[in-house]
Amino acid sequence: MRRFSLVAAAFVLGVVSACAQASAARPAAVPEVSIFYYPWYGTPARDGAWVHWTIPTTTSFASNYFPARGLYSSSNARVVQAQMREIAAAGVQEVISSWWGWGSPEDLRLPLVLRAARSAQLAVAVHLEPYPGRSAASVGSDLEHLRALGIKRFYVYHPFDIADADWAALRDSIPGIQLFAETRLAGHAAASHFDGIYTYDVLHVGGDDFRRICDAAHKLLLLCLPSVGPGYEASRATGDKHVKSRRDGKTYDSMWKGAIKANPDGVTITSYNEWHEGTQIEPARADATGTAAKLSYSSYDGAFGLHGKPARRAYLDRTAFWVRAFVRSLRPEKQLPES
User: Fold this and answer.
1) With contact defined as beta carbons under 8 Å apart, do 100 and 128 qualify?
2) Domains located in the chain, CATH noted
3) Are 94 and 33 in contact, with CB atoms under 8 Å apart?
């Protein structure tokens, strides 16, 4: 889809304006807004142990935030269905499910994610994570396995531990898919025959970076799907002292504004529920129960001027506002109501 005929490319470059040019380059099959999703949480009652809620080999809670729905299991169909409904209600079109190789918990839970997402009218893509032993050959098998489930869009995290030539050969051998590289280096992605790029990182990349990144991608006929997020706070989970403050929602707003100004082909959101890194927009509350009750937690109180229970959903509700704004920027003739 990123390869245009010489005649069409000449027409676009020579006749239409820059804005119309970017709009014409957007394949209809690319979702306007996608969100990264993690199906890796477990509880003793459903999964035999705490999984991802605590730091490995300890009982220490692994997030600076606490989910409003409590510590849940990603194997609980009711939880996953409710999450997919929340995502769809925010106007997001696609869930990008974290995937760590065949037989991993994320692989085994993928059919549940697919059923719940499709019931909510959401598309599903896969985030190909750097699982141990990942190689061009293993990724080739992964793509065939996942295509059999109906998945045709793949986002590759840390892609360049595999050589450009190997990516190019692999991509050219598998038609009918879209492959996106997590990178700010458009030339690297083009050499590897990726269809486009996304940034994922919301700690080091901000809204002011997106225009430069997307301009470079579009010059190489790559799709650009910059990643917006509310902030970053991972000290409790990883010991990382770097923090990107949410600034009561101003960080999220500034990233969305930068993304829209960059004339992207779509926007990706980091993340729905990556609680370890504090990038989640899933509803949160400051008070906890059970094993996590002894700690204090950051909350969304004050975000976008909201307090108390309404603040728990602040980022989901603000996502709906920005999705509408982005849709208007793509199709200005279709005026949607304001938030």
Assistant:
1) no
2) 32-330 (3.20.20.80)
3) yes
Q: What is the pLDDT along the chain (339 residues), one digit of tens a residue?
A: 333 333 333 322 332 233 333 333 444 468 999 999 999 999 999 999 999 999 888 889 999 999 999 999 999 999 999 999 999 999 999 999 999 999 999 999 999 999 999 999 999 999 999 999 999 999 999 999 999 999 999 999 999 999 999 999 999 999 999 999 999 999 999 999 999 999 999 999 999 999 999 999 999 999 999 999 999 999 999 999 999 999 999 999 999 999 999 999 999 999 999 999 999 999 999 988 887 888 999 999 999 999 999 999 999 999 999 999 999 998 765 444 443
List beta partners, residue 97.
37, 126
- Cα distance between residue 199 and residue 84, in whole Å: 23
Cα angle value 103/194/150 (rounded, 5°):
45
User: What is the Cα gyration radius of the chain?
Assistant: 20
Beta-carbon contacts of 165 under 8 Å, excluding residues fewer than 6 positions away, are none
Q: Is 200 within 8 Å of 175 (Cβ atoms)?
A: no
Sign of the CA dihedral 102, 105, 106, 108?
positive
